[in-house]
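Final paragraph of the annual report: two paired records, presented back to back.
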Amino acid sequence: MAKKRSHSIDFKRQVAQDYLAGEPLHSLARRHDLSRNLIRIWVRKYEAGALDEDTAAAALLQEDEARIAALERLVGKQALELEFLKGALKHAPRQRSGPTSAITGPTVSPSQKDAD
């Protein structure tokens, strides 16, 4: 399977500019070892202004801010759950007698049926 390559915004912009300047799509694709469809995509993005550094930086910033907001919501939810569980633990009745080991478990009260 072919290794996925990543190209810089400057490279994509340069390839799109070369195409728009009149260089044939086939020769550009062969020279840079790219698919012609990928070059067409870059040209469309270049014409739409998506290959500007400011646009790319703004998109990256927006993605980061969305991720931060999602993580902050998760932390808030976990803090709320933790406070709830602490409160529940404080108000839970405690058994003063009997074993506290998890291995032995609580003592079993004998029933009349067992005595017979």
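The closing record of the year follows.
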Amino acid sequence: MGLRDTYAYAIQTAKGKFHGNAEERDGKLYFKGTVATEGEKNELWNAIKTIPTWQNDIVADIQVTGGSGAGAGAPAAAAPPAAAKTYTVKAGDTLSAIAKEHLGSAVAYMKIFELNKDQLTDPDKIKPGQVLRLP
């Protein structure tokens, strides 16, 4: 019961869709790999977010390839890789520093905030390990 069961659910959700590895190490669950579509990435993130302390317990680098994954739906409907750009927050990061590095302008931080309102309530409150979508 507890985190281990929830980890198992997240790993089970990833099976067949996620190409990479998901392993428990040092009390954290590490995901690193790719999925074919944005929908599969969202499904995996929804499973990860069932872990109440996922911001502290999960380290994930999940990229969308847009490749020809076996499954229902037209492959042409997959989002282009640029639409799935993400950034994992590190200690000491600020939204403006991330915006300057990835968008070319520190004042563009609100674009990142708006895109991540599902997990951010304040542009000054980001946490290491959070995976933010970038425009």
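The first helix runs from residue 3 to 14. This concludes the annual technical report; the extension proposal builds directly on these records.
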